[in-house]
Amino acid sequence: MKARGLTPQKIINAINNTFDKAIIASDVGQNQLWATQFLELGKGKQLLTSGGLGTMGYGFPAAIGAKIGNPDTDVIVISGDGGMQMNIQEMATAVCYELPITICILNNGYLGNVRQWQEMFFDKRYSGTCMRYRKNCPHNCKSPTDCCPEYTPDFIRLAESYGAKGIRVTSEKEIAAALEIAKNTPKAPTVIEFIIEREANVMPIVPPGNALDDMILESGDK
Ligand SMILES: Cc1ncc(C[n+]2csc(CCOP(=O)(O)OP(=O)(O)O)c2C)c(N)n1
Ligand SMILES: [Mg+2]
Q1: Which residue, 70, 86, 91, 92, is CA-closest to 22?
Q2: In 3-state terms, what secondary structure has residue 5?
Q3: What is each CA distance from 18 to 15, 92, 124, 150, 192, in whole angstroms?
Q4: Top-ranked range on mean pLDDT: pick from 2-6, 135-139, 152-156
Q5: Which of 95, 130, 166, 212 meets the CB 3.0–4.6 Å disulfide criterion with 159?
Q6: Is the pTM of this model over 0.90?
Q7: End-to-end distance of the chain based on CA atoms, in angstroms?
Q8: Which atom of ligand 1 is nearest to the CA of 79?
Q9: What is the arithmetic mean of pLDDT over 11-29?
Q10: Residue 128, C-beta contacts closer than 8 angstroms, at least 6 positions apart
Q11: Which residue's CA is the nearest one to ligand 1's atom 2?
């Protein structure tokens, strides 16, 4: 399934509008950078993030702890499709303890942060970053095509297999309704899988080994 104009900014703006008061836990990667760029923090919204330590898998367990400690506050996870799989087994904990956490997965089908480096600084030689890779893929795949396999994994079926709710969002008009359902679901976590552009980049970025003066501000501005 192709992304239909869903951008991380639109998704995070909708989170801003849906939740006045919330604790948001980010994972690591592009999703984390977008979260820090677009979340409106301070007015009742707090962010838990591993920051520059960058421990993938942090977001979901952090949210479980936040929800147990703050049962009356909405708790939201913003994660990538890679990092979510590093502690996905904690879905069992969240279901057992009936924790109504909203889990927003920004699914680009890549370990996106690393893919962006491979695109910008290593001539787009993608290696080990595509979540839809199969042995018979073209050797020098430089972009996703219509032939790419479907989700790896199918997060909706995965959520449902644990007894959590799963909602897939592919277009902008579905974002707000999905967040409302998650917000109003008692006693169970809700996974919202947002299908975003596969090769969306986060700007600005500093090339490896360079000084802050060499920061690249816009895509294509090398
Ligand atoms: C435990 C761990 N392994 C590897 C990395 C290196 N790393 C940083 S970001 C990233 C990709 C994250 O991919 P995903 O979770 O899909 O998030 P996206 O960047 O696509 O939003 C990787 C592999 C890390 N920070 N932590
Ligand atoms: Mg990803």
Answers
A1: 70
A2: coil
A3: 5, 26, 37, 30, 14
A4: 152-156
A5: 166
A6: yes
A7: 31
A8: 15
A9: 98
A10: 111, 114
A11: 56
**pLDDT grade for 5, boundaries at 50, 70 and 90:** confident
Element (H, E) at 103: strand 102-107
Buried b (16+ CB within 10 A) or exposed e, 25-34: bbbbbbbbbb
Residue ranges of domains in the chain, CATH in brackets: 8-214 (3.40.50.970)
Of 48, 49, 41, 47, the C-alpha closest to 20 is 41
Among 7, 28, 201, which is best to mutate for testing ligand 1, by the most ligand atoms less than 8 A from CB?
28
pLDDT tens by residue, 195-218: 999 999 999 999 999 999 999 998
Matching residue, tokens 């297999």:
161
- For the stretch 31-80, pLDDT in tens is 999 999 999 999 899 999 999 999 999 999 999 999 999 999 999 999 99
Instruction: Determine if ligand 1 sits within 6 Å of the CB of residue 82.
Output: yes
- Give the torsion through C-alpha atoms of 15, 42, 77, 109, to 10 deg: 70
